[in-house]
Design a protein that fits this description.
seven-stranded mixed β-sheet; 13 helices; globular; binds pyridoxal-5'-phosphate; four-stranded antiparallel β-sheet
């Protein structure tokens, strides 16, 4: 980079000058026998478990455990109500509505565009190449002095492939805004996570989630990994109690069961490869994008016909056939061995 990375320059002035909300738990953090400072119900909750006290705003216990699992210091972790909250906070912290812009590289996760629209922030789309990789010259052309964020999803949704690491590093080295690498599917990939590059790249934000491999989509827990300076920005503008106590309790319990999760990941990857092998034999299948995720993008002769036939048999896949660069494609999530077998049976006997 020509100039050293300057986070303050990127930040919106209203956020820079913001005095954050100060909760009762911010003002008194120690142990005490009588807590009558937060207008809580001192008697308890009408439940077996007590939820009458406000939760830890910074989720120290959960972050401590995640820090051990991920090998990233707790001070470099932000927890959000899903990754979607982290995405929204990035827009609110760094992008002035009607002034700044972000770069998106479709086909990719739809939430970046929705969040841009909600925040009235312009986006510049630079399509991935035919092999679903970054078009670096076109990205360089799209960036101007008002470009604050670039979103790169790797492994990418809905294509399933990983983005070339060197290309992401080229952007990290040359872009003066923040590079957001969304690793929602990293557990299914052999590629190395960018969470280990936070010291090297002050403009890096890595997103992960408990919604996919960890099997906790209903709890809504997303993670952002970044420099302590960027994490401080997240903490400054998040709602004070964005992760509720029930989620913190249940996640702590779930994080003890890493062996179960690793075994599911291994099975999912095995099933993915079996599914690819079997689908490839079918007449109707034109192409399958090599996947590093828990789903595959399959190009079909008659995607809509196949989609509706499967719906008629109680099997729902995602029709992406109208998405630019995904023409003709269905996105199929890897299920249990029984579910995958049923899918293959139905597809094999489609005309009989
Ligand atoms: C599913 C998914 C997420 C997860 O979002 P949550 O809000 O954490 O459930 C994030 N990014 C991508 C690319 C996804 O596909």
């Amino acid at each position: 980079m020509d100039t050293p990375f300057n986070l303050t320059k990127l930040l919106r002035a209203n956020i820079q000058n913001l005095v954050p909300y100060s909760s009762a738990r911010d003002e008194f953090k120690g142990e005490a026998s009588v807590l009558i400072d937060a207008n809580e119900n001192a008697f308890g909750s009408p439940l077996a478990h007590n939820y009458n006290r406000y939760p830890d705003p910074l989720q120290h216990q959960v972050k401590h455990k995640l820090s051990q699992i991920k090998g990233v210091p707790a001070a470099n972790i932000f927890l959000g109500n899903g990754s979607d909250e982290a995405i929204d906070i990035l827009f609110r912290a760094f992008c002035r509505p009607g002034v700044d812009n972000v770069v998106l590289v479709p086909p990719t996760y739809g939430m970046y565009e929705v969040s841009a629209n909600i925040n009235d922030v312009a986006y510049r789309k630079v399509n991935l190449t035919a092999t679903y990789q970054l078009d670096l010259p076109a990205i360089a052309d799209a960036i101007d002095e008002h470009t604050k964020l670039i979103f790169i999803c790797s492994p990418n949704n809905p294509t399933g492939n990983s983005i070339n690491r060197q290309d992401i590093e080229t952007i990290l080295n040359n872009f003066e805004g923040l590079v957001v690498v969304d690793e929602a599917y990293i557990n299914f990939s052999q590629t190395k996570s960018f969470t280990h590059e936070l010291v090297e790249y002050p403009n890096l934000v890595v997103l992960q989630t408990l919604s996919k491999a960890w099997g906790l989509a209903a709890l809504r827990l997303g993670m952002a990994f970044a420099s302590t300076e960027i994490i401080a920005v997240f903490n400054k503008i998040k709602p004070p109690y964005n992760i509720n106590q029930a989620t913190q309790d249940i996640v702590l319990e779930a994080l003890e069961n890493i062996d179960q999760v690793n075994s599911w990941i291994k099975q999912t990857v095995e099933e993915r490869e079996k599914l690819v092998q079997e689908l490839d034999k079918l007449e109707m299948v034109q192409h399958i994008t090599p996947s590093d995720a828990n789903f595959i993008l399959v190009k079909m002769n008659d995607p809509r016909g196949v989609y509706e036939y499967l719906v008629g048999n109680g099997i729902i896949v995602r029709d992406r056939s109208k998405v630019e660069l995904c023409e003709g494609c269905l996105r199929i999530t890897v299920g249990t061995p029984q579910e995958n077998q049923l899918l293959l049976e139905k597809l094999t006997t489609i005309n009989s």
